[in-house]
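Reminder to self: tokens first, then the designed residues, so the page reads top to bottom the way the pipeline ran.
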């Protein structure tokens, strides 16, 4: 048997909710070592009194003197009182279909649920409604504290709490109705509003809840705007109205408080699918660059690796824009990740690293890397342009079929660990992962951008169309993405890639066949699986550990 609360939608008006106001007196402070000595409960709906439950309970343990002093309940008062196993069946029926309410509700709910579970009943499910927490939300700091006695005096309630279950339950019920009346003027009108108000933290902005009345209860994207209509923040949600409302119930983060102090209105765009919401969010953030979105200007940090085989002695460069016919790898989310991948390639291939421009006949003294056999030093004529071009062609080929390249880097990492050069091995692992992640993204980007018109069906029956990587929305003519993807649209393409990799979709039509290169695919998958598992293991440990002699041990 189950003592359930009402199975109500979050949008149920409070006038239609049945509340069960409960108070228990106990022999101590913990249900693990103490027991219930008295239970009082009342049922209300729409302010109407529906029923009352009250009984003393034999706790099967003596009442401590301090409890007698506090409540007035003596051991002699409990002689002949029913044990808890006789009380619980009636209590279960009384609570059925109601929302559990108490003052400092966690205490009363813990004792009630301990009794229910101990006798084989299902516990009352959370969340309860706590009148103390509700008072903190709607009348603080008008009162010095939120004790039940203080609130009863504040609302001029005739029934004063006396540390007896039924009297305290009656006082709590009247306090609840007074708080709900005040909360209603602030915009707390439904059961969902009430639960969120009780559980929220930070300073509430209840006066603005009405700004959400026009928002649909559907997935989509929302925008907070200031008085001038400028977009301050863009977000997405599965339930637009509930998500936006949650901001106004209170949030302790300083950034959110600053956002709410500036916002004047909110608007939303419903979306038929998660992918549509992800793409629309990325497009709006790119368009408006909202000051409170962390990604507002993040696209400016995207970086590429560039290699131009047409140069006499090409080198790998970090660039912010992809231009010309040169080979590009990326975009990377940051120059840090791009540098790690660049270092990995330079570890595997002795390509020149100096930033000094070189023509076919340029000569200058070599650097220390030449003496360490880590650069072929075309700068002093040791290698002619033809042989150097052969080296570059090998590097380009390795990016397409990276099995040998990744294997060599992995072997170097293991060798460093076996020599107990743990810091160098850890750095090699970082470089290897940055390169492997970039190559995996590049393969997926290639078929997304090169598929032409792609028609998919998601798991909810929605039909989605991509045109050269760009999501096509009704009445929209999106600009196709080029390859490599321009950094200003990198977030949009990343949203498409991430969604496709995490969801099972049905392919309806593809203008061009979807394919990735076969060579190196297995090696890349195996390596990334192990690198990600190792990273999860380190995060689980909560600290960055030095790489061991067996670097894959997790």
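Designed residues (554 positions):
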């Amino acid at each position: 048997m189950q003592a359930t609360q009402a199975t109500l939608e979050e949008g149920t008006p409070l006038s239609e909710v049945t509340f069960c106001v409960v108070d228990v007196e106990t022999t101590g402070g913990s249900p693990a070592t103490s027991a219930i000595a008295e239970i009082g409960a009342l049922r209300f709906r729409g302010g109407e009194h529906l029923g009352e439950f009250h009984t003393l309970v034999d706790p099967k343990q003596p009442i401590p003197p301090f409890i007698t002093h506090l409540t007035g309940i003596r051991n002699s008062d409990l002689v002949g009182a029913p044990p808890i196993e006789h009380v619980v069946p009636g209590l279960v029926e009384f609570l059925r279909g109601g929302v559990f309410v108490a003052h400092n509700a966690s205490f009363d709910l813990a004792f009630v649920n301990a009794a229910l579970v101990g006798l084989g009943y299902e516990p009352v499910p959370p969340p309860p409604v706590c009148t103390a927490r509700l008072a903190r939300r709607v009348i603080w700091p008008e009162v010095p504290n939120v004790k039940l006695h203080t609130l009863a005096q504040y609302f001029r309630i005739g029934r004063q709490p006396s540390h007896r279950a039924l009297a305290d339950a009656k006082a709590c019920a009247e306090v609840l109705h007074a708080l709900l009346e005040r909360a209603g003027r602030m915009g707390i009108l439904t059961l969902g509003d009430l639960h969120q108000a009780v559980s929220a933290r930070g300073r509430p902005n209840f006066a603005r809840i009405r700004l959400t009345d026009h928002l649909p209860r559907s997935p989509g994207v929302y925008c907070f705007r200031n008085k001038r209509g400028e977009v301050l923040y863009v977000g997405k949600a599965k339930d637009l109205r509930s998500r936006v409302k949650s901001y106004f119930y209170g949030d302790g983060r300083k950034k959110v408080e600053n956002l709410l102090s500036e916002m004047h209105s909110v608007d939303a765009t419903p979306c038929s699918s998660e992918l549509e919401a992800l793409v629309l969010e990325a497009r709006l953030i790119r368009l408006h660059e909202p000051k409170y979105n962390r990604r507002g200007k993040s696209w400016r940090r995207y970086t590429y690796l560039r290699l131009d085989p047409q140069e006499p002695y090409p080198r790998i460069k970090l660039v912010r824009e992809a231009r010309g016919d040169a080979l590009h790898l990326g975009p990377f989310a940051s120059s840090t990740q791009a540098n790690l991948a660049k270092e990995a390639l330079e570890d595997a291939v002795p390509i020149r690293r100096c930033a000094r421009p070189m023509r076919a006949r340029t000569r200058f003294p070599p650097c220390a890397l030449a003496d360490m056999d880590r650069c072929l030093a075309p700068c002093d004529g040791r290698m002619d342009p033809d042989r150097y071009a052969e080296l570059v062609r090998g590097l380009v080929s390795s990016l397409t079929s990276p099995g040998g390249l990744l294997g060599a880097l992995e072997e170097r990492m293991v060798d460093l660990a076996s020599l107990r050069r743990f810091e160098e091995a850890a750095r090699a692992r970082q470089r290897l992962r940055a390169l492997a992640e970039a190559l995996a993204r590049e393969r997926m980007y290639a078929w997304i951008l090169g598929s032409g018109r792609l028609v998919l069906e998601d798991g909810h029956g929605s039909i989605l169309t991509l045109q050269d990587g760009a999501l096509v929305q009704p009445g929209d003519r999106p600009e196709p993405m080029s390859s490599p993807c321009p950094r200003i649209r990198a977030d949009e393409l990343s949203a498409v890639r991430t969604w496709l990799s995490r969801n099972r979709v049905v392919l309806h039509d593809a203008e061009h066949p979807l394919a990735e290169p076969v060579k190196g695919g297995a090696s890349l998958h195996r390596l990334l699986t192990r690198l990600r598992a190792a990273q999860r293991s380190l995060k689980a440990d909560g600290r960055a550990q030095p790489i061991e002699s067996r670097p894959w041990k997790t």
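Residues 422-450 form the longest helix (29 residues).
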